[in-house]
Amino acid sequence: MASFLQAIDLGLRATLFTKFGDILSLADVNTGVVYYPKDIALKKIAEKREASSRTKSRLEFINCWRKTTAPDWSRMRSSVARRGINIVNTASGTLTGTTIKAIPAKLEYDVWYWSRDKDKLNLITERYLFWQQNDPNIALTYNDVYPLNFDLHFGEIVDESTEIQMHDIGTYYVIKAPVILDGWIFTTPTTSNTIQSIWLEIFDKDDLTASQYDEIVDSDSSEYDSELHDSLVLVTKTITE
Length: 241
Known about the structure:
Strand content: 25-35%
CATH class: Alpha Beta
Number of strands: 13
CATH topology: STM4215-like
């Protein structure tokens, strides 16, 4: 059974790829955005790109890691936190009602952007700052019935480039730009064994001229879970102009 926390982690990973991947010329989320702490991110991205001659020589990628998960006391008095969510399951052909309990939580992620080109990180910084003006959020839909809109908040951008490592593997630059998510943690209803579906949407104020949907399944990862694959499908919207 897949956790909601993992679904949120994957959703943020897809959001980062959609929002910033074009600046770093990232072609694929699995070799462009890794879910690991900074200390081992270089090793993990090298392992993922080993089989790809197109990307293995480029030191441009994004990595993220959820560093804190805490109850959000400011939302504990909401109706969802007190009573849960009433949903109807129609998958079996009969109407079955159930209540899902929910706890509001603050999820804080550290996100690092790596590049050999300092100005690419300047472009990411600018887009990150403007992103705050566009009502940033991640929208998931539970059981195709209940929309879950998670607001995103931002913090201070920090330069974490390391001069010592630059002499070992060449010049590169790193910035950290945190993301704080107002999330909800849900229990799985007893009347259903799996999460039927979760959809991810990226919201921008700019008009879209075209859209394309790609399935995100990190089948090369050692953490790949076939049960998760069967029960959880995340899609990301790639904006093309």
